[in-house]
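Homework help board

Subject: predicted structure for assignment chain

Our instructor gave us this sequence and asked us to write out the predicted structure in token form, then describe one feature. I got the tokens but I'm not sure how to describe them. Can anyone check?
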Amino acid sequence: MGRPFTVDDLEFMPDDGNVYELIDGVLFVSPQPGRRHQRALWRLGELLDDACPEDLVVLWPPYVVRMSCDTELRPDLQVAWEVDVEDETVLDAPELVVEIVDPSTTINDLNNKKVAYARMGVPHYWVLDPTRPSLLAYRLDGGSYQRMARVCAEEPFETDDPFPVRVVLAELLGRRSGGQEPQS
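My token output:
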């Protein structure tokens, strides 16, 4: 058995379009996101950017969260304090992380990453499924996440924490959100 991976090893990963992340020295490889995923990412990113206070910033890849030499994650979206961002790295726990799931990432996003973000101290974790469509919103409580909301399609999700925002998936994702649009 070889040694655990470190963030320095990520520099030597192939430029093949895959997403490379580390959790406790274990390498996770995901395929490049498809069109539906990208559409949800940009629309939710714009919505969050319009709502967040000026001392917070909405970031998407290539920005990463690096909490140690053996853990680096690339959230689909994150809202971090401006002072914690250096180059393309967030050096302290962001206020909010959003993962947009697809069939190849669901298990990792709902298990491994969720635990890693809780250990990092990320106060808010959302999981958006643009295929169904649904949104799970979690809040960190005592070292683990407690679900604060699960909304589908036209149900509004309104929160003041970490800042006031209202998300209605049907409006956000548009008419094709529940259809069989190909995952290119």
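Reply (TA_rk): Your tokens look well-formed. For the description, you could write something like this. Residues 177-184 have pLDDT under 50 and may be disordered. That's the kind of observation they're looking for.
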